[in-house]
Amino acid sequence: MVAPMRVAVIGAGLAGQGHAAAYRAASTVYNRDLPPVQLAVIADSNVNLAESVAARYGYERAVSSWQEVASATDIDAVSVVVHNALHREIAEKLLTSGKHVLCEKPLAPSVEDAQAMVAQAQTSGHLGRVGFSYRRSPAFAALREVILRGDLGRPLHIAGRYLGDYAADENAPMGWRFKGPWGSGVLADLGSHLVDFAEQLCGRAISASGAKMSTVITKRPVPLTVTTGHSAGPVGTEFEPVENEDYAQFGLQFADTNSSSLGSFHTSRIARGHPNTLSFEIACEFGSGAYDQRRPGEFQLWENSTGGSNSGYRTVLVGPDHPYLDGGLAMSYPGVGVGTNENFVFQARAFLEEIAGIENLPRCASFEEGLHNLEVLDAVVRSDAQSGAISPVDSNGENK
Length: 400
What we know:
This protein is α/β, with parallel strands linked by helices. 30% of the residues lie in helices and 26% in strands.
């Protein structure tokens, strides 16, 4: 009999539950050989939450510390879904104890930490992977295939945005997301996805410019109880300063063999009315494409072959001819529906397949790719620090 792969999830919050549910479903998709998957452990410092999530998704046990997972001898693969500042310590210990690691983005709190994690993964001989789950969106992946095939010609420019409203309430309790150095706020949280998306379409980013970042809500009340994910809760009268940014905008330049394409991006965690708006539009030599995560079952195309400039975009509904869906859904039919939860399933399946040595789905992002993502974000932060505001010039040639 083939030995089972035993999995654990460290962190039982919102994204952690996405990972936990994904491992449960991973063996049910694609009907291809995969060793049995045993759901072993959920770990969280809030043990009541860990027990609840373990029971909900069928895991064997719940523990209150990540160290118990690292020292366990019956675990093969672990998702790390906790405070970014803890990623390096936890991942390094897991790798040295002989476990494969899928770490949520951003890979680490700093470039230096990420470099150390890359070195540790290489030394350990075990997989170090990063959870850029939006790569698994069938609609995004289908549009990427169109662009990489050259159907639209080479990319010229891309505009993307990732807007959230989880921090729009000034009375939302202080939490780890609001602490840390400049660049560790919304830029790391949501902007890391924007950078990854853009590089999937346009190639490697070679420079950042024109960055502007700001903190709009400068202080937040201290919570009276433990909070989970983006949830609210009772707060006291004491306030603490917000240390990182609520909003960021920046430009990137991408390299390819023929020319350099440009991109402009903005991201916010205080955009009311946008609980989770990740979208972009890309213009190429012979056409354009667009994607909006709020409508994950479709993407938009404009091609020269569809008519003149007044013909407009056409909508493509994803179906079994597009990535991940054939066998990846119980009903892989256009218009049935697909979303973020399925992205986590496809990601978990790819991670487990790579561990098992199966060549099927595209691999998850490597620690090296996670390091590069942080290097781009670091360039954005440095661009913000070095940029100066220029006043407009009036009709007399004088600065206003």
